[in-house]
Design brief:
Blueprint: E1 9-12, H1 19-26, H2 29-33, E2 36-40, H3 49-57, E3 63-66, H4 69-78, H5 90-96, H6 99-106, E4 111-116, E5 120-125, H7 142-148, E6 156-160, E7 168-172, E8 175-179, E9 192-197, E10 201-206, H8 210-220, H9 226-234, H10 240-248
Helix pairs in contact: 4-5, 4-6, 8-9
Length: 259
């Protein structure tokens, strides 16, 4: 934990290299006025990773960074520690980063804790406090939360995580759990999703001109399938029901009985 209690913190998660969506959120007055902007990972795996990193680094020390699993995978790919990445756009994204940007991503922490007014000590992470790929959902069972909170200090009463691209706020064993949703690849509802913390939790969505953003990505990004990629993700073609169904098998729940 570092610094004095903060009044307002904007949380931006899962930007996935979508520059127009990020620009729209950074232009929000309450994001501009926030004392800190916390990025909860998966910043770069998408169509404009270098441009997204450059814009965020231009914001200076007000931005606090956490790496996500997709950022780690890009680093591992560039450093020769892996020869493939499951996400089809990820190898393209890795190739767009400068060596300096790869080194910057490689040095990012996997979590941080900040005191926020009204919320106490807040732990920020990508997926769960102990793993950057682990799945927890709005309807994950209590035993699952016991597992993922096992090593979280008792003083932490709020946990903010991303990874699943769907916003929610819920209680789990007396702790408040917040997922801001995704800036660049939302599931269930279009728009750039983020969260404002302090003294409460306020889930936000920034509407922006999606057809214009798709046109811009097609013009500025050399990824061969960029038109299809942008149409699918910016329009949130994947529903929240489909995403919950796909992720549910990975949060440790019992499979549904077969007839």
């Amino acid at each position: 934990m570092s610094g004095a209690e903060l009044n307002r913190v904007a949380v931006l998660s899962d930007i996935h290299g979508v520059l127009p969506a990020l620009e729209a959120v950074l232009a929000e007055p309450e994001v501009a006025a926030a004392e800190r902007i916390v990025l909860t990972g998966d910043i770069t795996a998408g169509p404009q990773p270098a441009e997204v990193l450059a814009l965020l680094r231009d914001q200076g020390d007000r931005v606090l960074w956490i790496a996500g699993n997709a950022d780690r995978e890009l680093v591992e790919y560039r450093q020769g520690e892996r020869t493939s990445i499951p996400d089809p756009i990820a190898p393209f994204a890795a190739a767009q980063l400068t060596d300096d940007q790869v080194e910057f991503l490689a040095a990012l922490p996997t979590s941080l804790t900040l005191p926020v007014r009204g919320l106490g000590d807040v732990l920020f992470c990508h997926a769960t406090p102990r793993d950057d790929e682990e799945i927890v959902l709005v309807d994950s069972r209590p035993d699952r939360w016991t597992e993922v909170f096992a090593d979280v200090p008792e003083t932490v009463r709020t946990v903010v995580c991303g990874h699943t691209h769907m916003p929610y706020v819920r209680l789990a064993h007396g702790r408040l759990v917040v997922n801001p949703g995704s800036i660049g690849m939302p599931y269930g509802r279009p728009g750039a999703h983020w969260c404002l913390l302090g003294p409460g939790t306020d889930l936000r969505v920034t509407r922006y001109d999606i057809p214009a953003a798709i046109t811009r990505l097609v013009a500025e990004c050399a990824y061969p399938e960029i038109a299809e990629w942008a149409d699918y993700y910016l329009h949130a073609r994947a529903t929240d029901t489909e995403a919950l169904g796909a992720f549910g098998a990975r949060d440790g729940r019992e499979p549904l009985p077969t007839r």
